[in-house]
Amino acid sequence: MKKIKISYENIKFIENINNSYIKNKNKKFKIFFKKNKKKNKNNLKYKVKKIINFYRNFGFIYSDINPLKKKKKLNFNYFKIKKYKYKINKYIKKYTYFKNKINNIKKLKKILEKTYCNKIGYEFNYIKNYKENKWIKKKIENKLNKYKFNKLEKKEILKYLIYTKEFEKCINNKFLAQKRFSLEGSESFIILLKFLLKFINKKYKINEIIIGMAHRGRLNTLVNFMGKNINKIFKEFKGKKLKNNFSGDVKYHKGYCSTILLNNKKILNLILLYNPSHLEKINPILQGITKNRKNFFKKNIIPILIHGDSSFSGQGIVMETLNLQKINGYSNNGTIHIIINNQIGFTTSNNKNQRSTKFCSDIAKMFEMPVLHVNSNSVEKVIIVLKFALDYKIKFKKDIIINLISYRKLGHNEQDNPNITQPLMYKKIKNIKEIKKIYNNKLLKKNIINNNYIIKIKNEFYNNIKNNNLINYPIKNIKNKIFYINKNIKNKIIITKISYKKIKYLISKIIKIPKIINIHPLIKKIFKNKKINFKNKIIDWSTSENLLFSSILSEGFSIRITGQDVSRGTFSNRHAVIFDQIYKKKYIPLKKISFKKSKFEINNTILSEEAILGFEYGYSISNSKNITIWEAQFGDFSNCAQVIIDQFITSGEKKWNISSNLIIFLPHGYEGQGPEHSSSRIERFLQLSSNNNIVISQPNNSSQLFHLIRKQIYNNKIKPLIVLTPKSLLRNKNISSKIKEFTNGFFRPINFNNDKILFFNKIKYLAFCSGKIYYDLNKIYIKNNLKNVFIFSLDKIYPFPKKIFFSILNKFKKIKKIFWIQDEPKNQGIWKYFKYIVSKKYKKIIFIGRKNNSSTSSGSFINHCKEKNKIINFFLKKTKNEN
Questions:
Q1: Fewest CB atoms within 10 A around its CB: which of 17, 249, 456, 786?
Q2: 27 belongs to a structural domain
Q3: Residue 810 covered by a domain
Q4: Are residues 734 and 756 in the same domain?
């Protein structure tokens, strides 16, 4: 048998092949494997490599990273090494990045233990990128062990620990048993943030830090990092009167924006975002704000997300947001994630009840993100980990996780008794030394400080409270410069029409496709029809959309449109992006029109509603000169993002005085496609509407859409706009508009087909409706030549156009009844809202529509048609009898 050279790395793989062919009678084949197996086991090179890789892969499991648990002991006999005096210098140079002299395996074991099984646990060897993996190993084995703190830095660390601790103590003494969501047990988090400023000051060209976090430790962060006046916090605990148009939020949900001046005269913006109790929901919002500020303000930003251990592994929005980190239109070149891991979620501390993985951070492996586990009681190691995370994020433009393993000294809040549910855990916590005392004793032993230093810092803290100067860097509140805040200004009269000359120029650009683009035959036909329509002075819905976008771009606004199928349009209607059928080319007509100050961006998104809508909301609150549009694939799916709608979009201005110009397109209409493809749940948006917080509209033709959006963007007060858009109607010629509606028209809150209403005195019935049913009724109206009834389309739903509505009623003197007709069941849609407003002045209102239903619609097309015919026939019966 010929000799075959096989590398030792592949021996195990070949052993597996041997095992699968164990029944093979070829003795020479078996002998070959036996010989190589013996060689492999006794080979020093193999053993050295095995030891190194073991520590790199599994060292974190044996690290001293949990302040509540003893370090796991590693049995070195696992490697079956009888002698420790083998000379291994050449292998150390080849397989590691240590600069120390390592002559034998004993020394190798010692240095690996110190590096990989100390107060920091590193998880990274699942990263496939060779350069990235190599850089991490080199950083850990060569540089991190050399980082040393000078005496001044050590004193500074202790000072920040005292400030952090005294803040909690001060609040507790002043406002006993009031909720503050204390940081006690995780105080090193504030030191991490403080040293972030030091590193930026020394080395990094960063001009903005944006932080998203839940309520644990927020008050401490506001005062000791953001620079909020502690006396303002005291006032918030006591309670204060709020303005009539502002309901406010609890103190531990509030954000803050400040500009600080660092030692080297570098100006740095600090932004702590407002967040409700919904923990991780802030994640995509932070990413959206960061993206906007990078795009429009050219800021070099460090985004930081602070997580809880239970919420990080438990809430789906975490995974959805992490998935955005490399997606076109969503990437922010890396975020630093810090898990304040107090090893308990509310009252649940057993890992078997919290997650299916060993660590809460294990989701990171899915995205090949390094995880740095660190014992929060070892505050210097926490700072080293931060330095590592900063260097990695800036070099590789990727997310990284710091798992700050700590504990929670008190209950979920200060009114909870955690001993009831975690008696053993809290016995340990009661006996554990506080971080401040641990570090204080360390400095006393080294004669860096004396007892007078601690007294001095405490006195300094309380003196600074009196002088309103707790932070040693100048602070300026800049909320108005970061977010758009509506002012008390009356809405001006807005002219939304544009000239025929401008329309002609813009349409010529958006319907023209170069010959070099190999266009699909169907798209070719669509664009040909657009040209024919324009010659006939008609503009369909999709052309109206593109005309709208191009007109806005020409006036200096940038536009960002996103959604799961926005490039083409869910119903193959938009075609804002043309795909070459032969080559990998895309042609975007709106990008080919030259506008100096504006940008056009259109992105198909990942299959997510919650994270994407959260991101777009964040993008929309930071810059009023950008129009942000998110389109649901079907309006029904918007409820996947209900928390973002409830807690941010509809209530953000009332709670936090932050306005958004986000526009949401929700395809809506009853067409027999079943309960999940019919309704945008208008009733839910109406339930959330109050104090003119949002605008809800269902434009019934292409010019109405054009004027609606243009009116919205030029309004003095910016508001989120919910637009219910058509589906099958997109191919209905009736929703196309004449060009004169764009050159001379305006948005009509209550719309109708006839320009003039004749014979007011003959009209006995008024029918009001909204959406697709208007065209169904109009068809019957014309077919049956109904002369005693007039049909109106309610295009602006909220705020209700009361003046226009009641002025219409006043013109009709002989009205017997008013009908409200809708496709939606009686307990859904607009009916209850319409009835509530109109019945105050007019009692004779009749509902025509489907019966109450817990589902939105029937799943049967036949049933759908029967129900629709019943609505039409009932309307006809009520009006035809009087003709």
A1: 17
A2: no
A3: yes
A4: no
End-to-end CA separation in angstroms for the chain? 106
696 and 717 belong to one structural domain:
yes
Residues 442 and 438: their CA atoms lie apart, in Å, by 6
The HSE-up count of residue 429 (CA atoms within 13 Å, CB side) is 19
Is 845 within 8 Å of 870 (Cβ atoms)?
no
441 is a domain residue = yes
SS3 850: strand
Per the CB < 8 A criterion, the answer to whether 168 and 183 are in contact is yes
Domain count along the chain: 4
| Joined tokens for residue 358 | 């060993």
Whether residue 156 sits in one domain with residue 122: no
Residue 564 DSSP label: T
Provide the CATH number for the domain around residue 291: 3.40.50.970
Residue 213 sits in the same domain as residue 315: yes
- pLDDT over 60 (residue 187): yes
Task: Lowest mean pLDDT of 469-483, 548-562, 776-790, name the range.
Answer: 469-483
Alpha helices in 417-564 (DSSP H): 423-431, 435-445, 451-466, 479-482, 500-510, 521-535, 541-554
For residue 664, what are the β-bridge partners? Answer: 630, 722
Q: Which amino acid is at 491?
A: N
Which of 209, 336, 213, 193 minimizes the C-alpha distance to 274? 213
Is 769 in contact with 827 (CB distance < 8 Å)? Answer: no
606 to each of 26, 613, 687, how far by Cα in Å?
Answer: 54, 11, 29
Separation between Cα atoms, residue 95 and residue 274, nearest integer Å: 48
High-pLDDT (> 90) share of the chain, %: 69
Distance CA 2, CA 29 (A): 11
Asked if residue 22 has pLDDT above 60, the reply is no
Please, are residues 181 and 216 in contact by the beta-carbon 8 Å criterion?
yes
Of 575, 521, 375, 461, residue with least CA distance to 170: 461
Q: Which residue is it, tokens 């299959």?
A: 607
Helices (H), 61-187: 89-95, 105-116, 130-138, 151-174
Tokens 């509902």 sit at which residue?
847
Q: Is residue 606 part of a domain?
A: yes
Nearest Cα neighbor of 697 from 707, 578, 48, 133 is 707
Which of 78, 95, 129 is where one domain is finished? Answer: 129
Closest to 377 (Cα-Cα) out of 409, 350, 425, 401:
409
Q: pTM for the complete prediction?
A: 0.92
pLDDT for 446 beyond 50: yes
Secondary structure element (H or E) that encloses residue 796, with its range: strand 796-798
By CB atoms closer than 10 A (0-12, 13-18, 19+), residue 447 is: exposed
Distance, CA of 718 to CA of 720 (rounded, Å): 7
Q: Which domain holds residue 116?
A: 43-129
User: Are 728 and 873 found together in one domain?
Assistant: no
Kindly state the tokens that stand for 528: 């040909």
CA proximity to 62, closest of 140, 125, 116: 116
Say if residue 221 is in the same domain as residue 367: yes
Instruction: State which of 685, 710, 743 marks the end of a domain.
Output: 743
Q: What is the mean pLDDT of residues 725-747?
A: 94
Indicate if 504 and 472 belong to the same structural domain: no
Cα 290 to Cα 476: distance, rounded to the nearest angstrom = 21
